[in-house]
Design goal:
The complex is a heterodimer of chains A (114) and B (234). Chain A is mainly beta and 114 residues long. Helices cover 14% and strands 38% of the residues of chain A. Chain A is built from two helices and seven strands, in the order ββαβββαββ. In chain A, the strands form three sheets. In chain A, strands 3-6-7 form a three-stranded antiparallel sheet, with no helix packed on it. In chain A, strands 1-5 form a two-stranded antiparallel ribbon. In chain A, a hairpin with a 5-residue loop joins strand 6 and strand 7. The radius of gyration of chain A is 19 Å and the shape is elongated. The two termini of chain A are 24 Å apart. In chain B, strand 4 and strand 5 form a beta hairpin. In chain B, the strands form three sheets. Chain B has a five-stranded antiparallel sheet with strand order 4-5-10-7-8. A four-stranded antiparallel sheet of chain B has the order 3-11-6-9, with helices on one face. Chain B starts with 9 loop residues before the first helix and ends with a helix. The chains are: A mainly beta (114), B alpha+beta (234). Chains A and B meet through helix 1, strand 6 and strand 7 of A and helix 2 and strand 3 of B.
C-alpha cells in the first residue's frame, strides 16, 4: 500500500522513493511472525533529467551519464536507484517451538538518487 | 490485499528469507526476555534513524545475524526427596538442533537454567549443579542414560535465579558430527547444612526446584553471506 503522498511542488515523475508496506496479515504470516507486523517494500522510481541531476541526490557518474545522454541518445539515461538502505530484524517461531530472531541487511530503501 | 493477489509469490519471499516454508505453529511461544529486549532496542533505533550494525548483538557481545532460542524438550528421570547423598533432581535436557541447517558460524551457545525465583529471606540449602554430556540415551525416558564427560559442576547457595553455561564447544562438536539433537544430563544435589536440615523439615527444596526449573539454549550464528564484514563497509 503506497501510503505517504509525494511532497507538494515535487514533480511526481522525478526520481524519488515510493513507499510500499506489505502487511504480514495479508499474507497470513501473522500466525508465525511475532514482530514486526509488516515489511516496507519501498522502491525507487522516476526520471533523472540532466537539468535536475544536481538536485536529485545524484552521484557524479550519474551526472556524467545524463550529460552524455544529452550528447548521444544511444547512451542510456541515468537511472533512479536506492542510495541508503537499512536492515530489518524478524522475530518469528518455527514448527519446533524455537523462537528465532533473524536479521536481514539492506532490506528497506530509505533514500533514492540518480 | 497483497496476500490474495496471485502475482505475489510468498513462496519466493520465504525462500529469500532463508525459510523453506511458512511455519504453522499450533500456538505462540512466549518470547524470551533477551530476544524481546533485542528486537525492541532495534525497533527503537530504526525509528530514530540511528544506523545499526545488526550483525553484532551488543546485548550478548557477539557477532551474529541469527539468534535461535531452543526450548528444552527433555524429561525428569526421577524425582525423589533428598536422599542421603542429597540428590533430588535428575533430568535429561534435550535440544533439537536440526533447525540449525545453514552453514553459518556458531558464535554463541548459551544454556540458561532458571532455578526459580531468588529467595533472600528463607535461606535454602546449598545446591550442587552438575551438567554432563549424554553419551548414550539408552531407553529414552525409561532407563538411565550413559553419561559422557562432565561439562560443569558448581555449587550455588539456594535457588539462585538463573545459571548460564557456555556450551559453544559442545554444540560445535554436535554440529560437526551433524547430530541432530543435543542431550545433556543435569543433576542437582541438595547440600546438607544446618539451615537445610531445618528447611528440609519445613519444605522440600526438590519440589520447588522441579516445579520451577526451566532450561533453554540460545544459539547465535553468523552467516557471512548475509553479513558483509564491517571492515569492508568502513
Amino acid at each position: 500500500r503506497a501510503a505517504i503522498p509525494v511532497p507538494k511542488g515535487f514533480c511526481k515523475n522525478l526520481c524519488h522513493r515510493h513507499q510500499l508496506f506489505i502487511n504480514f496479515q495479508d499474507l497470513g504470516w501473522h500466525k508465525w511472525v511475532i514482530a514486526p507486523k509488516g515489511f516496507m517494500a519501498n522502491y525507487c522510481h522516476g526520471d533523472c533529467p540532466f537539468s535536475m541531476t544536481t538536485y536529485l541526490n545524484s552521484s557524479n557518474y550519474a551526472f556524467m551519464q545524463a550529460l552524455m545522454h544529452m550528447a548521444d541518445p544511444k547512451v542510456p539515461k541515468a537511472v533512479c536507484i536506492p542510495t541508503k538502505l537499512s536492515p530489518i530484524s524478524m522475530l518469528y517461531q518455527d514448527n519446533d517451538k524455537n523462537v528465532i530472531l533473524r536479521h536481514y541487511e539492506d532490506m528497506v530503501v530509505d533514500e533514492c538518487g540518480c | 490485499a497483497w496476500g490474495q493477489t496471485s502475482e505475489f509469490q510468498d513462496y519466493d519471499f520465504l525462500q529469500f528469507l532463508g525459510l523453506e516454508k511458512a511455519p504453522s505453529p499450533h500456538r505462540f511461544q512466549p518470547v524470551p526476555r533477551i530476544l524481546r529486549k533485542i528486537i525492541r532496542a532495534r525497533e527503537a533505533a530504526a525509528a530514530s534513524g540511528a544506523s545499526q550494525d545488526l550483525c553484532y548483538v551488543k546485548e550478548l557481545g557477539v557477532r551474529g545475524n541469527l539468534l535461535r532460542l531452543l526450548p528444552d524438550q527433555g524429561f525428569f528421570l526421577n524425582t525423589q526427596k533428598p536422599s542421603q547423598d542429597g540428590s533430588c533432581l535428575q533430568k535429561v535436557l534435550y535440544f533439537n538442533l536440526s533447525a540449525i541447517k545453514e552453514k553459518g558460524k556458531l558464535t554463541m551457545a548459551l544454556l540458561t537454567l532458571d532455578l526459580g525465583p531468588r529467595s533472600y529471606y528463607n535461606l535454602q540449602p546449598e545446591l550442587v549443579v552438575a551438567l554432563s554430556v549424554v553419551q548414550d540415551r539408552g531407553l529414552w525416558g525409561r532407563s538411565h542414560p550413559k553419561l559422557g564427560r562432565l561439562l560443569a559442576q558448581l555449587s550455588v547457595p539456594g535457588p539462585q535465579g538463573s545459571l548460564q553455561f557456555n556450551l559453544q564447544g559442545v554444540v560445535k562438536d554436535w554440529n560437526r558430527n551433524r547430530l541432530k539433537n543435543l542431550d545433556l544430563y543435569l543433576q542437582i544435589l541438595v547440600k546438607e547444612d544446618r539451615y537445610s536440615r531445618v528447611n528440609v523439615q519445613l519444605e522440600n527444596p526438590c519440589d520447588r526446584l522441579i516445579g520451577s526449573l526451566h532450561a533453554s539454549l540460545l544459539v547465535v550464528t553468523l552467516n557471512p553471506k548475509h553479513c558483509h564484514s564491517s571492515s569492508r563497509k568502513r
